[in-house]
Design a protein that fits this description.
Blueprint (H helix, E strand, L loop, with lengths): L4 H32 L3 H21 L2 H24 L21 E2 L2 E2 L1 H11 L3 H9 L13 H19 L8 E4 L7 H14 L4 E5 H13 L6 H12 L2 E7 L6 H16 L3 E6 L3 H19 L1 E3 L6 H10 L1
Parallel strand pairs: 3-6, 3-7, 4-5, 5-6
Antiparallel strand pairs: 1-2
Helix pairs in contact: 2-3, 5-7, 6-7, 10-11
């Protein structure tokens, strides 16, 4: 799907805002340190002067002076780090701040779009801005074992460990990058999906999230309006087939027809062929899946996906009971 010039400009404006914000934070830190640490400001101001003298020395070929200046600059930098630690700061407290260290918040690495810009474009195209808010709340750090009772705990520990291992091995050539969460509602399937999505986003992978209904509605809109060969439709197909991780949440909530069945098979089959990762969550059983989406899709899921079926009581009900206490 093509990104309009205005939408692209909006994204790059956000990058400019990010740079400005981080510069303000760094400047505030500098002022704080200069006020709290005696002599730090003088050391900080000495570096630019030494750098200028160093450059002139190089031009003039004064090798002894250049050596002495370089040595002095290194001593000053070391002294600054020692002072920061002495006063309770980390050594990198005054280093430049970046939301994305890979592109230094420019959106580009050389002439190529950085993974963070690619994901920003994906979020804009597929209206996934709420995902950032969701994964701030639903991730491995906020995951709690308090809602698992007796034998549930041992089972969920194994499932959670598997999900963490899935993230760690995702970049390996021989990795299984596909998971099917299935079974009863309220067992944490979507939560665990979000945990994995956040970890992979943090590692720089592109993630596209669809509810099942939204996915098939989007595809149907273009197909039934004869836009199948449009640039937008080609772009959507390319994104769906090629993003590092495709999440299809709540499979089974859409209206099933021949179009949905054929597109579902096409997506999972094409992504398997391209060795792209897919996570599907559903409240359906395996037999229900086979019946709704035909045996060829069920066969792909059984043969190429890790099947995770949390057999626990509804966590939402547990939370309500705990909150009433």
């Amino acid at each position: 799907m093509a990104l309009s010039k205005s939408k692209y400009a909006d994204i790059m404006y956000e990058y400019d805002e990010r740079v400005s914000r981080n510069k303000r934070i760094r400047e505030k830190r500098k002022n704080e340190v200069n006020e709290k640490i005696p002599g730090f400001k003088e050391l900080d101001e000495a570096i630019p002067r030494l750098s200028l003298q160093y450059g002139l020395g190089l031009v003039r070929g004064e090798s002894d002076l250049v050596y002495d200046l370089d040595k002095k600059a290194r001593e000053i930098r070391l002294k600054k780090k020692e002072l920061l630690k002495e006063y309770g700061y980390s050594e990198d407290y005054l280093d430049p701040i970046y939301d994305c260290p890979d592109c230094k918040d420019t959106g580009y690495i050389g002439n190529e779009r950085c993974h963070c810009l690619k994901q920003a474009i994906i979020n804009t195209l597929y209206d996934q801005s709420n995902i950032a808010d969701i994964i701030r709340e639903e991730n491995f750090k906020t995951l709690s074992y308090d809602y698992y009772y007796d034998n549930e705990l041992e089972q969920m520990e194994k499932i959670i460990d598997f999900c963490k291992a899935f993230v760690q091995s995702f970049e390996r050539e021989d990795a299984n990058r596909n998971i099917l969460f299935f079974g009863d509602p309220g067992t944490g399937k979507t939560f665990l999906t979000n945990c994995i999505a956040k970890e992979l986003l943090d590692k720089g992978h592109s993630v596209i999230y669809f509810t099942s209904t939204t996915l098939f509605d989007t595809l149907a809109t273009y197909s039934f309006r004869n836009y199948e060969d449009s640039d937008d439709m080609k772009g959507i197909r390319d994104d769906i087939f090629n993003c590092d991780l495709l999440v299809i949440d709540d499979l089974g909530t859409e209206t099933v027809n021949s179009f949905v069945v054929s597109r579902f098979f096409l997506i999972i089959n094409e992504r398997l062929n391209r060795r792209r990762g897919t996570i599907i969550s559903t409240n359906l059983s395996m037999s229900d899946l086979s019946e709704r989406y035909e045996s060829r899709s069920a066969s792909r899921l059984l043969g190429s996906y890790a099947l995770l079926n949390p057999k626990i009581a509804d966590i939402r009900i547990k939370k309500k009971k705990i909150n009433k206490i």
